[in-house]
# Entry
Amino acid sequence: MKNFIIIMILSLAMIGCQAPTADPNGRTLIDPTDLIAVSDAFNDALNSADIETASSMLSEDASWAFPNGVTVEGREAVSELLAGVSQIWTTIDQNSGDTVHLGVTGSNENGDWKVLLSWGDATYANEATSISIPYHQVTWFTEDNLIAGISGLYDRTELVASYDEDPIK
# Structure
């Protein structure tokens, strides 16, 4: 009888530890390699102040949402913002070796989607200052791996303090 009780307890423990076989919301992890390559190329273009190349990686209706509630919409508007920010910071490094990436795909009423989730430290630098801040970012991609949207979450306090005028308002 004692063995039967132990077997029952162990069986229940094993059943309780099984992972679900599928995400109930239909999300799937994907290999993020291609998305990371686009993100890295975008970052490289920004760091070389090549706004034309960075802009070519954006979808026509791209958007960028900032933690202060501002959202910039459309390739042209995002490109203008990038041009202004690249005049302030000569280095914007959001994809250092310590950045963690996760690729996810799914679908909803608007269709299929894929995102690159990234988190780590971002460094903003120019001749006068260098600021490193922890950040979380969601980058949405089109089927063609163009950047459809970026949403960043980070504390802007140090960045704003270094501006004469906040470019994201």
User: Anything to note?
Assistant: The CA atoms of residues 42 and 145 lie 12 Å apart.
